[in-house]
Design goal:
Layout: H1 3-100, H2 105-119, E1 125-130, H3 140-150, E2 153-158, E3 168-171, E4 177-179, H4 182-188, H5 190-202
Parallel strand pairs: 1-2
Antiparallel strand pairs: 1-3, 3-4
Helix pairs in contact: 2-3
């Protein structure tokens, strides 16, 4: 075979070998590229899922916090509304007690309550104090009547600092004080009255 033909065959063989190797390299490159694309897509999906989960968790937490705050605010407003209503109820009760002073039964209530208070106290000499307006009902005749029934001595003194309605009994030595003003009676029973009023209004 002439030398030219041998060279030509060798060149063809080298070219074929090179082409085959190039094809293999390209195939491996494509496989690697595909693999990396698959891994990249998997990583992207994983990151997306993780981010979504984190966002959802944060959203749930934020929503829970919002709900908790809303519930607390709702309870606060309900409590505030109830307190306002109870204050109004007590105000109405005070107004009704003041109106009771203008009825015929008020003088009898004063006599009965004063005698009951004195019977709970030791001593023979007491001072009855009340708002000056109470002199209309806490008359000398009423005091004499109660004194005779209790067997003690009573003196009267007006005190403008005391609230209208009812009276305060003070033993002569000043060591015992019995507040039977409307305000004092309500204050002593405030928590019981509040609980009972709340139960009747709201079933609390």
């Amino acid at each position: 075979m002439p030398l030219y033909d041998q060279v030509e065959l060798l060149c063809q063989a080298i070219t074929s070998q090179a082409t085959a190797e190039v094809d293999q390299v390209l195939a491996r490159a494509r496989e690697e590229a595909d693999r990396r694309l698959i891994e990249a897509e998997a990583s992207r999906q994983e990151a997306l899922a993780r981010t979504k989960a984190e966002v959802e968790a944060q959203a749930k937490l934020s929503a829970r916090n919002l709900i908790d705050r809303a519930e607390l605010e709702g309870k606060r407003r309900v409590s505030q509304t109830k307190e306002t209503w109870l204050t109004e109820v007590f105000g109405q009760a005070q107004a009704r007690l003041q109106a009771f002073r203008e009825t015929a039964g008020y003088r009898d209530w004063l006599r009965t309550t004063l005698l009951g208070a004195l019977q709970q106290l030791e001593g023979e000499d007491f001072r009855v104090m009340a708002h000056p307006d109470e002199v209309t009902w806490l008359t000398p005749d009423l005091l004499d009547e109660v004194s005779a029934a209790r067997g003690c001595h009573l003196t009267w003194a007006g005190d403008p600092d005391l609230p209208p309605g009812g009276f305060v009994v003070i033993r002569a030595d000043g060591r015992v004080r019995f507040d039977q003003t409307f305000a004092g009676i309500i204050e002593r029973q405030r928590e019981t009255l509040r609980a009972e009023t709340a139960r009747q209004l709201w079933g609390d």
